[in-house]
Amino acid sequence: MLHNVRFTLLAVSALALSAWPQTLPQGVQKVTSVEGITEYSLPNGLRVLLFPDQSQPKVTVNITYLVGSRLEGYGETGMAHLMEHILFLRTKADKDIKKDITDHGAIWNGTTAWDRTNYFETMTASDENLHWAIQLEADRMVNMRVEKALLDKEMTVVRNEFEMGENSPTRMLYQRTLETAYTFHAYGRLPIGSRSDIEHVSIEHLAAFYHKYYQPDDALLTIAGKFEEPKALAWVVEAFGSIPRPTRVLEKTYTEEPTQDGERAVTLRRTGDDQAISVLYHVPATTHADTAALNVLAAILGDNPSGRLYKALVDNKKAVSAGMDVEELHDPGYMMSFIRLRLDQSLDEARDIALKTIEGFLTEPPSKEEVDRAKTRLLKQMELDLTNSQNVGLAISEYAAAGDWRLIYHERDETRKVTEQDVVRVAKAYLKPSNRTLGEFIPTKTPDRAEIPAAPDGADLMKDYKGGVAIAQGEAFDPSPANIDARLVHSKLPNGMKLALLSKKTRGGTVYAQVRLDFGDEKAVFGKGYAAQLAGALLIRGTKSKSRQQIQDEIDKLKARIFINGAATNATANMETTEENLPGALRLVAEVLREPLLAEDEFEKLKQQRLAGIESNKSDPQALASIELSRRLNPYPRGDIRYTGTFDEQAEDVKKVTIAEVRQFYAQFYGASDAKLVVSGQFNTPEIQKLAAELFGSWKSPRPYQRVITGYQKTEAMDRKIETPDKQNAVFFAAMQSKMSDSDRDYPSMLIANYVFGGSGGSRLFKRIRDKEGLSYGVQSQFSALTKAEGATFVMFAISNPQNSPKVEASIKDELARTLKDGFTAEEVAAAKKSWLAEQTVQRSQDQGLLAGIMGHERFDLTYQYDADLEAKVAALTPEQVSDAFRRRVSVDGLAVVKAGDFKKAAVFQ
Question: Rounded to whole angstroms, how far apart are CA atoms 210 and 228?
Fold first, then answer.
């Protein structure tokens, strides 16, 4: 379960309500309806939001409890997060929640924040799945086992999650800044809590917490996706209606953070390889009228590359990154800037520039162009997010916890109204030295304090709110392999570029596209890996006719998300936009790919950022272990693009690259003779075919392409230990390779074997090492095989407290040996097959997953009949076939083992 404390989705919209009889179940009342989302209430206090979206064959059930770390007292920190974990264990009827969810092939999680906790499942849309998910959440509301034996095991898992965060200096700086900024309010503590409270919370306190807050009158149930509203509402009443309204009264929190009366400071000293600065200012709650203007202010200061902080620090090589965000909360929240530096950059100079830029904002008031650019970008994000019913269903949690779920639309409307004068007003009100938490304390005789207004009541604010016009619905798309093949339109341009186009009606007319260029061969790109990476990263930083800022402005005007990357043998451009803007987005991508400026000043900034990224990982256990394992599995010579360099080698190679080498690489390799264009969503097929020919049809590659394969290498067993002082979280890797491809007879069996052993939330490794023994927050295995080439890899991974590392390693090896000896049971294989097959359908129903799948098929000249055949083979597997394949491909003796952590301090592995 993710520990989510920074979830931000600016706004969303909804579908028009489907027409259905308005006769409601007895006692149910319709409360309000905004842009296709309708709220109902049950007599016991449960609120229900129904959000139908027929365009995608999936449905999300999300239940939000209006309890988070804000409601925890001293000695109780982390209880809401602990409760989140407990609710994924067992019911009073001994139902295994995680196994039950996994058996239904759902994408699931639970998250805890300051103001709320939520649980969600996204699954293939069907009456059976929806009815099951509703019953599951009703069961979790009142029927969970909150017992000491379960707490004792899960506590160590949560503590390991806490330790994982302790490894990151930037995360700890964030925590220390909050602790200094908030002297009384609970927002000064991260929801994961303190180590001592996690370790010592009593089962009596936790059970009381559960019975107090996990009740219908403190919950909001949201159903979003493809479903029939009358059935859904009837099932909600069936599952939740019998739960009585509790007699207890939930008291409101009353702690208010006092007005800050002077600069505050905190210094963090820990092991690390880069530097960071944080600057925090208190701001009003989400429901306050200043929120929209504050978001625009944060964008003007913190956007990349147009933001004032970026220009003052990154462009001038005083830092490697700089940004600013607003944390919107139920009570007054904060605006924070975060700045990263390399070790050879001056912390004092960067801090002075940052403060001058932020607090000197009013000496250079924002121009209309700056405000309009920030609004355009914010509104673009909002309007794109409007089209995703799953995201809407989850984002509503944040706004409901802040005061009212309709704030999700209200904030969009208010953003449209923001003026330059509004931005000046909020900057003057809150960007004051006395309202700042940084790293120093300077007393003053005449304090100028920022008085933070109280949070307005969300219901009063929204009582007459009607919302805007609901956006168009999409079609009910069948994600079966046969239908995808039938809908795909294939063609080829004169230069050899392939097109694969799947047109379908989508919610809001959204469309996704990817252009992939393949180029080079093993010999031609030898020694040019970093020149290739930097060339790919520079593409979007300027063309011969557009600056980096002009490109970003154009992307925002097109209401698009565009990401372009390059590697040694390929470059990819991913696009998300709407039907009317797709031609413009494709034209912009073509210009970026075909006419890059490859500017030297951007090249130098990019090199500094890459070096900072390398340096920041030098003491990270997971990064060090990953590199060591990769070097053992892929023993290629230095200069080969498959070679994995040490951090020192990586830094050395990056420093050596010149802009001339980058430009030469582009000239030698970039072209579209071996390119693919995949488009999925709402668009005009003939129009896009004609446009693709115009943009790419004449662009030929300078030399032929030949795939570079990281094929099978016999794994040499090893056991390597890496010491990482002052890191409280350790990692364990074990891997081996096998000579097989994804067409091998063992491939379907290995997929299911891995799923049962360590590849799912209900796997053997997960249940033993996390659930039973409580040793690790994250433990899993992975299996992958190449297409049309021999090479497969099986990897096992776990994190833990360094003191527990020997136990984790022993348990993983013991579980592997037991599995190889005894094989898999019929029940395990049957459940895994059902869940794995359901996941494939869900993945094909996700727009991004469908796009990636089509591109993968195009690369290897496959149709979706391959998927249908693979799924048929999986469905027909027997436990004997799965067990035998696992024994053929995996062994305990052949493992390459790497572990990293502060083992010396823990006195283990000596």
Answer: 32
pTM: 0.87
- The reply to whether omega before 479 is within 30° of 0 (cis) is no
**544 band by pLDDT with thresholds 50, 70 and 90:** very high
For residue 552 the two structure tokens come to: 């970003």
pLDDT at 16 over 70: no
**All structural domains of the chain with their residue ranges:** 29-240, 264-445, 481-696, 718-906
* 237: CB partners within 8 A, 6+ apart: 25, 27, 28, 42
Fold that domain 481-696 belongs to in CATH: Cytochrome Bc1 Complex; Chain A, domain 1 (3.30.830)
**Is the Cα torsion angle 577, 579, 584, 586 positive or negative in sign?**
positive
Mean pLDDT for the stretch of residues 376-383: 91
The residues, any chain, with a CB within 8 Å of residue 358's CB and separated by 6 or more, are 279, 301, 309, 324, 337, 431
- pLDDT tens column, 380-400: 998 888 778 778 878 888 999
How many residues are given for the chain? 910
CATH number assigned to the domain covering 264-445: 3.30.830.10
Which CATH superfamily hosts domain 29-240?
Metalloenzyme, LuxS/M16 peptidase-like (3.30.830.10)
Judged against a pLDDT cut of 90, whether residue 618 lies above it is answered with: yes
Q: Is 31 helix (H, G, I), strand (E, B) or coil?
A: strand
Return the CATH number of the domain spanning residue range 718-906.
3.30.830.10
pLDDT score for 390: 79
> Would you give the distance in Å from CA 296 to the centre of its chain?
24
Q: What is the pLDDT of residue 440?
A: 40
pLDDT confidence of residue 254: 85
3-state DSSP assignment of residue 639: coil
